[in-house]
């Protein structure tokens, strides 16, 4: 255990059904009169987006839409957004949607007044503080899924097409001034996306609890996030209009993102290369990997997950938690194997090599070697989890 740490997590959240009507007030108090409304193309055509923009306009605010965003956003999306921001003389960003729109919106606000290129401020190279903090535009985030938790965090993932890797963008001022978390906005989300995004949130909670860094506040948040997902995902799966259930999932997503500032691990380290090589859904890929990674980490996390099992109403044992996780995946249609995501074995070596150099790898509670990555990958291909 690293018995030393830096802690930080204050983001204002206005949570609850129907609170999208407070968007103009929130935008004004963030200092904006003319926000750029950033969302993805598919979402821009849905009534929830047009209604949110209408709410802004009818309150006397100017706004314009930017929606040129890929599902896995790239640098060009950010650069086009910054051009739109400047062309419209915008004074802030409303980032509205799932992870891609939120990440691009936050990064547009970050880059709005910078002189350099985005990669000049690469987080993993320690360059983020070279950015001019006074030139970062204010941000309001509005999640419409319950998974990434990007609405609450200070980072974003943008794909670098030259290296085919997702790069981390970070700055403390990329944190939203306010989050409007209205579960009504997630009601129309297709069932597979509801499950996939919830698996992402669950992976954030499980991985942040698993990692050995010292952060008991994050641990507590992760444990409650796990409970909310176990109790509410099956309800929302069988009744997509369950606003209360969707509200709990939206909370759990934000909690996962608060928790994962502590660290993540092998699920995300493996999921990143699988996603970039096979274009699989990030959350669903995490959902596939979860039991195999838990099993691989068992020696380091057995006691923690026995406590979690007791907390969520199961026998106090690691095996009870693993069994419940397998059942949750089964009842909500999460594929059991990577083969079902059309991942093929010929990329086995490449995936393992990319996984061990992923930034999440060193955060895994047991040393994440290439051998372990290959072992987890093989189990996830064949569906081999030790009988729980
Ligand atoms: Fe994730």
Describe the protein:
The protein has helices at 23-29, 41-44, 47-58, 75-87, 99-111, 191-210, 216-238, 243-259, 266-278, 282-296, 298-311, 318-331, 348-356, 370-382, and strands at residues 12-15, 36-38, 64-66, 93-97, 139-143, 155-160, 165-170, 178-181. The chain has 388 residues and is of the alpha/beta class. Helix 6 runs parallel beside helix 8, helix 7 packs antiparallel against helix 8 and helix 9 (266-278) crosses helix 13 (348-356). The longest helix is centred in the middle third of the chain and has 23 residues, at 216-238. The mean pLDDT is 95. The structure holds fe (ii) ion. Fe (ii) ion binds next to helix 6.
Outline:
The protein is α/β, with parallel strands linked by helices. The protein has helices spanning 23-29, 41-44, 47-58, 75-87, 99-111, 191-210, 216-238, 243-259, 266-278, 282-296, 298-311, 318-331, 348-356, 370-382; strands at residues 12-15, 36-38, 64-66, 93-97, 139-143, 155-160, 165-170, 178-181.
């Amino acid at each position: 255990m690293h018995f030393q740490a830096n802690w930080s997590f204050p983001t204002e959240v206005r949570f609850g059904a129907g609170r999208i009507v407070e968007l103009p007030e929130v935008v004004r108090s963030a200092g904006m009169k003319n926000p750029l409304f950033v969302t993805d193309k598919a979402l821009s055509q849905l009534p929830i987006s047009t209604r949110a923009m209408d709410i802004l306009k009818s309150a006397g605010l100017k706004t314009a839409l930017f929606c040129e965003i890929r599902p896995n956003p790239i640098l060009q999306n950010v650069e086009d957004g910054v051009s739109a921001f400047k062309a419209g003389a915008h004074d802030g960003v409303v980032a509205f949607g799932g992870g891609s729109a939120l990440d691009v919106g936050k990064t547009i606000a970050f880059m709005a007044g910078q002189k350099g290129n985005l990669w000049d401020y690469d987080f993993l190279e320690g360059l983020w503080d070279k950015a001019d903090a006074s030139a970062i535009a204010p941000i309001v985030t509005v999640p419409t899924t319950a998974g990434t938790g990007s609405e609450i965090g200070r980072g974003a993932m943008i794909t670098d097409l030259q290296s085919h890797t997702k790069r981390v963008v970070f700055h403390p001022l990329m944190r939203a001034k306010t989050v409007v978390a209205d579960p009504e906005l997630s009601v129309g989300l297709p069932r597979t996306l509801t499950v996939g995004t919830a698996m992402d949130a669950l992976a954030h909670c499980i991985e942040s609890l698993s990692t050995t860094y010292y952060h008991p506040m994050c641990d507590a948040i992760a444990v409650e996030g796990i409970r909310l997902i176990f109790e509410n995902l099956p309800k929302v799966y069988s009744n997509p209009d369950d606003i209360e259930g969707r509200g709990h999932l939206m909370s759990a997503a934000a909690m996962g993102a608060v928790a994962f500032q502590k660290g993540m691990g092998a699920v995300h380290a493996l999921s990143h290369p699988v996603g970039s090589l096979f274009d699989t859904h990030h959350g669903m890929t995490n959902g596939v990997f979860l039991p195999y990674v838990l099993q691989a980490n068992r020696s380091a996390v057995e006691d923690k997950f026995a406590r979690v099992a007791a907390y969520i109403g199961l026998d106090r044992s690691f095996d009870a938690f693993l069994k419940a996780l397998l059942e949750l995946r089964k009842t909500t249609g999460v594929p059991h194997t990577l083969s079902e995501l059309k991942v093929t074995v010929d990329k086995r070596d490449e995936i393992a090599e990319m996984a061990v150099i992923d930034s999440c790898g060193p955060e895994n509670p047991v040393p994440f070697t290439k051998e372990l990555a290959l072992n987890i990958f093989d189990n996830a291909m064949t569906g081999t989890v030790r009988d729980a």
